[in-house]
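TOKENISE THE FOLD
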Amino acid sequence: MIKRFIPNLITLGNLFCGVESVFASLALGDARLAAIWICAGIFLDFFDGLSARLLNVPSELGKQLDSLADVVTSGVAPAFIMAKLVEDPLRGMMPQWGVLLTMIPFLLMPLFAAYRLAKFNIDTRQSHSFLGLPVPSNALIWVGLAQTGYSVGSSAEAIVLAVVALATDVLMVSELPMFSLKFNFKDMSWRTNRVPYIFLAGCVVLIVAMLVAVGFRWVALSLIIMWYILLSIITQRRESHAE
């Protein structure tokens, strides 16, 4: 009985991190602390499924609980972070209705996340790869900005962020195939693993570039997810033409 509950306990830890992130955003107004809680939740999210497989105790309860936790940690929590980062600076730049319109894509994030997770649970096509942007990946885009200490400097800047947020919202529920990051360890050749190799090479370039740019190190996290999206679009287009 104890062994069966371990994965669920890890999932509840993920949910706890999401709740703490929302508390940090609303009660403390600390976007960086909120971002750290999201990172901790996503870290636990990786291990709940892994522990269930290692302990051989997969369950439908655990699957549903995992989705509920992800809605909070990777859907609601990043929405609160970005809404807070956008709202305060914009109050002196545009009328109230403009601030609300700019915030809508971020406020819609939990809805798109919930729909994507429910869809994922019943979609048997996604056993080895993803269709659409995974919810935790979307959250990491905004976590990187928050951890950098990013602050909106103009209304145009906020509108660009809102457009990006709307695009990633749509990507979560899209049918865009996202390539798997898993290597084929039986055949490590370039031909078999070229896409993961290209992705890792791009990640190294981005990380080095952000380490050189003082004060922008955490932005590398956001850029890596954007690179993942871009590479998925490119590789999928090539595969479609090849077919």
